[in-house]
Write a structure and sequence with these properties.
Blueprint (H helix, E strand, L loop, with lengths): L13 H7 L2 H4 L3 H17 L5 H20 L11 H13 L12 H37 L4 E6 L2 E7 H26 L18 H7 L9 H6 L2 H28 L6 E2 L18 H24 L15 H23 L1 E2 L1 H10 L4 H10 L4 H18 L8 H7 L7 H4 L2 H6 L9 H17 L1
Antiparallel strand pairs: 1-2, 3-4
């Protein structure tokens, strides 16, 4: 069955049918298609465009189709062009000619625009929930590791001492921003295109406010041409998903580094690792690597849709059918990545001694040694040079700044006294950093309290 054909005198070539068809992927939003049709049929009945009895008959038929798809007694088959054709054909088969009245005052253009918007809106909320669960794991790890010292890095070089709580807090901020972006997308996209028709509305007295309300939109869209040709919301969503994947990929890269034999900061749980087919000693961070790898896949979906949309004149064009397949894949990919990543970090174990030793032998307290001199009257530029000489001495001896004798300190500068060891201990280095956003435990308590409040309110 086709929803068109009266204008044509011969059958479409089978290859054209196959090329044109979208049911292999647009069946994914059968629930949204049925929900939209129920809202449309409800409005048609209330407006007297069809009778209330006919409206109720259509709604009952649609609910029956939904139930049968959900329980597996009705299968969506590829003999139909798209999910809309399948639904209408099945409805007519079940309730007769009354089913033919469902499409009154509606085009496939506004129908598919609605379905995609409903589907995307649902997935925006699903993604937000996934991120909230990930944030809950990150926050738990922060609370447990406010005094787990580790090196902070710039340029992948050990820079200054921080804590695991502080380091993970950076990712909490990233994923919190991701949730904010999703909220913004929801606010902009939550307007209903149903009733826009093919591009110029309809002569039927539709109540677009009613259908918008029935579908939990803020209201109807205000331009029928834009209604059927707008995919900004999907581009925004794919952009937000790409940013989420970028954050996950950065985090995954660090997991891979920390898991390496050279670092040994963490040990991944066996359930989130794999072995080698030839090297029995291997325990590979495959989940982190795959998350990192799948980032390009999601970027590809965004670039594909941007490229598809860039040359399309108003209003609807068949090119826009390309909005679905890669978008569905990207959405499923990101949800899977967030879920698996959450499980991976929830079960991994830290090696606090290894992390602390790495911070010490990476001279992350060198800045604090320079600050010690400055506080004792040495100009900063001179202090910088003095500590540089001490670092060279440590490198030559294979020791940390903490391991130098006071005599060795004073051989470079007589300003040093016994209190240098307390000044450059990792505990002191971290605790005295009390500006908001720094790793000091007192300020971290305030940040964690703010995160707790955020999680309870959002």
């Amino acid at each position: 069955m086709k929803l068109w054909g009266g204008r044509f005198t011969k059958e479409t070539d089978q290859l054209v049918n196959n090329f044109n068809a979208s049911i292999s992927f647009d069946q994914k939003f059968y629930r949204q298609d049925i929900r939209g049709s129920i809202a449309h049929a409800t409005m048609l009945g209330k407006q007297g465009i069809i009778s209330e009895a006919e409206s109720n008959q259509i709604i009952d038929g649609l609910n029956g189709i939904l139930s049968d798809i959900e329980n597996g007694t009705l299968t969506i088959t590829d003999e139909y062009e798209d999910i809309h054709t399948f639904m209408e054909a099945t409805l007519i088969e079940r309730i007769g000619d009354v089913g033919k009245k469902l499409h009154t005052g509606r085009s496939r253009n506004d129908q598919v625009a609605l379905d995609m918007r409903l589907y995307t809106r649902d997935e925006v909320l699903n993604m937000d929930n996934e991120l909230k669960e990930l944030l809950a794991v990150i926050l738990r790890l922060m609370k447990e590791n406010t005094e787990t010292y580790m090196p902070g890095f710039t340029h992948l070089q050990k820079a200054q001492p921080v804590t695991v709580a502080h380091h993970f807090g950076a990712y909490f901020e990233m994923f919190k921003r991701d949730r904010s972006r999703l909220h913004d997308i929801y606010e902009r996209m939550n307007y209903c295109p149903l009733g826009a028709g093919a591009l110029a509305g309809t002569t039927y007295p539709l109540d677009r406010e009613l259908t918008a309300n029935l579908l939990d939109f803020y209201g109807p869209t205000l331009n029928s041409m834009d209604s059927v040709s707008d995919r900004d919301y999907l581009i925004e969503f794919l952009s937000a998903l790409s940013t989420i994947m970028m954050h996950l990929s950065r985090f995954s890269e660090e997991i891979c580094i920390w898991n390496s034999n050279e670092y040994k900061f963490i040990e991944l749980d066996d359930a989130y690792s794999t072995g080698s087919s030839i090297m029995p000693q291997k325990k590979n961070p495959d989940i982190a690597e795959l998350v990192r790898g799948k980032t390009g896949r999601v970027y590809g979906a965004l670039m594909s849709l941007l490229t598809t949309m860039k040359g399309i004149p108003l209003a609807y064009n068949k090119d826009m059918q390309e909005d679905k397949e890669l978008s569905f894949d990207a959405i499923d990919t990101v949800k899977g990545c967030v879920s698996l990543f959450k499980g991976m970090i929830d079960t991994m174990r830290f090696n606090p001694k290894r992390m602390e030793d790495s911070a010490k032998h990476g001279f992350t307290n060198a800045t604090d040694a320079a600050d010690y001199l400055v506080k004792n009257g040495v100009p900063f530029r001179d202090a910088h040079g003095i500590v540089g000489q001490l670092v060279l001495m440590c490198i030559d001896k294979g020791i940390a700044l903490d391991d130098l004798s006071l005599e060795e300190y004073r051989s470079v500068s007589p300003v040093f006294n016994e209190d240098i060891y307390e000044a450059i201990s990792l505990k002191t280095c971290v605790e005295k950093r009390l500006t908001l956003g720094a790793p000091g435990p007192e300020v971290m308590k305030k940040v964690i309290a703010a995160y707790d409040e955020y999680m309870s309110e959002n």
